[in-house]
Sequence to fold (169 residues):
Amino acid sequence: MALREILIVPDPRLKQVSARVEVVDDALRALMDDMLETMYAAPGIGLAAVQVGVARRVIVMDISKPEDEREPRYFVNPEILWASEETAPYEEGCLSVPEIYDEVERPARVKLRYQNYRGETIEEDAEGLFAVCIQHEMDHLDGVLFIDHLSRLKREQAVKKVKKQVRAA
Ligand code: K1U
Ligand code: ZN
Fold:
């Protein structure tokens, strides 16, 4: 396993639309292992492959509580089959937009279909933090960042702040 570099805004590679995965094989599992290690090291609760420069429809996640055992999860070619009309706000962050947090409103519940680490097709309902995180990560697969849900002014301010942080580092 290896740590990968996480791309930071305004890197244009974050705007790519990721390609579907044809087969879940050992090479893809090696990518998912690296992504998980990178996510835990950051630390974060989710990561899309495009954030490490690989534009494929792959997500890793662990939303377990810090005091509990790790619960790594893998989503290949995730699709939203249904989304609730009811929405819920959540103060989101993103490893590609470091130290910026803002409220985003998304469907409160979604029904998902995806392939897991073994390539099995799963259908599952998501709510709470799981629903927030999977929708945030699926946006990455379409080149959308959480700051794209904010006003233009807030988005521009966020990118400016991140550029300043990067220059100071
Ligand atoms: O960059 C990412 O996509 C990961 C992002 C996931 C996310 C967070 C909050 C709402 C929606 C999606 C993060 O993990 S940001 C860091 C973070 O939330 C966190 C870090 C350490 C402990 C707990 C949370
Ligand atoms: Zn993100």
